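WARN no homologs supplied; continuing
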Amino acid sequence: MISETSSSTSVKELPTCNWPSNDPLMLEYHDKEWGIPLHDDQKLFEFLVLDAFQAGLSWKTILHKRENFRKAFDNFEPEVIAQYTEGKIQLLLQDAGIIRNRAKVRGTVENAIAFLKVKEEFGTFDRYIWQFTGGKTIHNKLTSFSQLQATSKESDAMSKDLKKRGFKFVGSTICYAFMQAAGMVNDHMAGCFRY
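OK structure emitted
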């Protein structure tokens, strides 16, 4: 199912996935970030944090709070987040600009600690995380939204290994969403200009 993006210009509109709908922030995310191979450790950590907060919520909700998350979580710097005190956690739980879920906030601190350990072991988180797809993007060639999967054998393996390393909120579905965001999986519709 391919739809056209809405545009006020006279430029020929490009075919795109239909899930961003007509939300400008979702469209920009689809066009400039989602599914583009990502190898920057800090950005990978940001997606890990945001996908964990998305659990049980819509991506639109998270995306519209993304700037608030950046401010609240020190621009997603794992070295800073790993040092958060109980006082800082309590301040975050009072911040109406983010999702104030106690387990997810604490999980973010634990994930920062685990993330730094992975970096120490592998040199970069990028080197570690891309091993689950053999260092390449998996292209799924989807032609309809109904073909979209929620997990894969790769996300299962990633989830299992992340949990073993102490990461929280890294079930297979969250891992698959992360893989889509980081371009480890290309789930753009085959007719989408980003495919």
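The radius of gyration is 17 Å.
OK
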